[in-house]
Amino acid sequence: MAERVWMITGASSGFGRSIAEAALAAGDTVVAAVRRPDSMADLEQRYPGRVGVVALDVTDATRIPAAVQEVLAAHGRIDVLVNNAGRGLVGAVEETTDEELRGLMELHFFGPVALTRAVLPSMRARGSGAVVQMSSQGGRLSFPGVGGYSATKFALAGWSEALAGEVAGFGIRVLVVEPGAFRTSFNGPQALLVSAGMPEYDDQIAPVRDGLAGGDGQQPGDPDKAAAAILTALAAERTPLHLVVGSDAVAAVSASMDRTRAELDEWAGVGRGADIA
User: Which domain of life does the protein's organism represent (predicted)?
Assistant: First the structure.
């Protein structure tokens, strides 16, 4: 396979760093789109000439077109865009503020949307490319305490499903990655945003909040193995639209699908009865 050029947001840590290292190990070129360019200095030294850096906060919509043009000017193409930058949010629906929810939507939805739009014209012109959306099992199912987080990931998944159908004829693939709990910085205090609590919801939300914060470093998933799974999916003859990674996520998504199917079957007669006679 010819050398590819990857543009990866949030490449300084977590999944982004693991994906960058996997791509570099495969002989590809990586452009890290990060808020702190100096965070990539070690990879630049290990892979001279194959690591580029562009300064980018994905919530800054005015900066995105220029960042993409910088990558295209330097490398001529972007073969794989990975929308990875993100953070967690814990809070009951009533606890989560508009500011918190809108900020996370900018990071998890509007930023990736703007980046994808900026990259698509060059991919269409070449007739090839891939867009990798780093979502979550929380983009397939939700539970108390993660409503805001799941809302952003559900939005990205729905948008990406439509996108996949629209660009398939141009040779562009879309991969929505849905991890479970992995040993990244996701649960760390710098990444996990916690809404101000209300005593009315303590019984439900406190275990979620404490479980995420207290479980940091104990997650079952290996981010390097997730990165390898992503490269395998992109190399497949038929890249899946959804890639669930981590045994915990596979179990949770499977159980959620079973519940959804059972509920649909139970109420199918009522639903069909709503047609015009």
Answer: Bacteria
With respect to residue 257, please indicate whether it lies within any of the assigned structural domains: no
Question: Look-up: residue for tokens 């043009």?
Answer: 69
Does the annotation mark 149 as catalytic?
yes
Number of domains in the chain: 1
- The average pLDDT across 271-276 equals 95
12, 149, 150, 160: which one is catalytic? 149
What stretch of H or E contains 80? strand 80-83
Q: What is the extent of the structural domain holding 127?
A: 5-247
User: What value does the mean pLDDT take over residues 50-77?
Assistant: 96
Non-local (6+) Cβ contacts of 227 within 8 A are 15, 18, 19, 21, 22
User: Does a structural domain hold residue 210?
Assistant: yes
Q: What is the pLDDT of residues 98-131, one digit of tens each?
A: 999 999 999 999 999 999 999 999 999 999 999 9
Is the distance from CB of 177 to CB of 133 less than 8 angstroms? yes
Among candidate residues 18, 47, 136, 153, the one labeled active-site is 153
Catalytic residue among 12, 13, 18, 135: 135
Q: Which amino acid makes up residue 183?
A: R
The secondary structure of residue 106, as a DSSP letter, is I
Tell me whether residue 225 is one of the annotated catalytic residues: no
Q: Is residue 166 predicted with pLDDT exceeding 70? A: yes
* 258 located within any domain: no
Question: CATH no. for residue 147?
Answer: 3.40.50.720
Residue 190 lies in a domain: yes
* Model pTM score: 0.94
